[in-house]
Amino acid sequence: MLRKITNIVIIILLVLGLTSFVGCGNKKEKKEAKEIERLKQERAKKQKEKEKTKEEVAEETVVTIEKEAEKQPPKQYTGKKEYELQLAARRSRDRVEITSEKFKKYGYDTKISLTYKDGKKYYRLRMKGLYTKQEAKDLGEKLKNQFPSIQNYWIQRVN
Fold this sequence. Notes:
Strand content: 15-25%
Radius of gyration: 31 Å
Oligomer: single chain
Helix content: 55-70%
Number of strands: 4
Structural class: alpha+beta
Shape: elongated
């Protein structure tokens, strides 16, 4: 009889110990989840600030370039207008559309076209219209300086 009572007491103590142990784990997991969520929110906030700063820099650059353009007479280009200026090529159409909208905001007309390379689909963002090779190069450099997101540009002969 004493042995049964001892076994029951041991079982009760084990059950109580396990429930308190499991409860502690849940608190720790909840605390970790809150910390992860807080870090994600901080990261998102920093990303928004970074994007805002990039937009401010781009707007300041636009103003600076516009002022410089007012000082200089327009260049006269000679030659055939048989080149297109490509600003981006991405796998995601959404990213290309966002970039296109940004250019429209600053008065630049763009077009999106689809191409395949090595069996993969790419969306190209190109300026509307045809240019001489020098016009395309000058415009590419201007846009590269004006928009930090443009790191390269391509000049493609179309005729």
